[in-house]
Structure formats: structure tokens, C-alpha cells
Amino acid sequence: MTILLEEMSVADGNFSAKEEVTTMTAATYSQAMRRVRPHGVDRAIMRLSLMTLLWARRHAERSAVSHEEHTRMHRETQGIQRREHDAALLLARVR
Fold it and tell me: DSSP character for 14?
């Protein structure tokens, strides 16, 4: 039975404690890592940059125009220019 176990074992046949210590690494922390909170100028700069980012997002969303809205505005502009051109032609023919 011991012969069968030695053949099926996943442990290396030349196991030594010294070799295992150099090849295995483990990290254990006795104290929980805590995050240091920013103070003073750092905190003010972080808040200012966050406010600027949020303002820029709102501004971009307000000024963003969908494709349909852009197409509608372009067609209206073309219609106005066409009507003004036609009106100018009518005035030029009358005189």
C-alpha cells in the first residue's frame, strides 16, 4: 500500500523543510490597513477638481445635440435661407 501512495503523491519525493521555506511565500497582516484621509489643501484641491469635473459633465450634456435634433436644425436653417433667397428673387424681378 505504501508503494501505491508514493507513486500517486503530488508532493515531491525529495521534500525538505529548508527548500520549502525558500520557495513558498505567504503574506499575513496582523493589522488591518487603513486609508489615510486627505487634509487641508489636498482635500480642498480634490473637492475643487471633483466639482470642476461634475460641472464639465453637466455642461457637455447640455450642449450635446442628438443627430435628429441637429438634422432638424439644419433643415430649418436651409428652409429659411431658401425662403429668403426666393423673396430676394421676387423683389429683383418686380423692379
Answer: T
Count, residues in the chain = 95
Q: 80 with 88: CB under 8 angstroms?
A: no
pLDDT value at residue 66: 86
Reduced 3-state DSSP string for 74-91: HHHHHHHHHHHHHHHHHH
Query: What's the predicted TM-score (pTM) here?
Result: 0.35
Query: d(Cα 13, Cα 85) in Å, to the nearest integer?
Result: 96
Q: Do 40 and 48 meet the contact criterion of CB atoms below 8 Å apart?
A: no
- 11-69 confidence digits (pLDDT tens): 556 656 555 555 555 666 566 677 888 889 999 999 999 999 999 998 888 778 888 99
Q: Which long-range contacts (CB under 8 A, 24 or more apart) does 76-80 make?
A: none
Query: H/E/C letters for each residue in 56-76?
Result: HHHHHHHHCCCHHHHHHHHHH
Residue with cell 418686380: 94
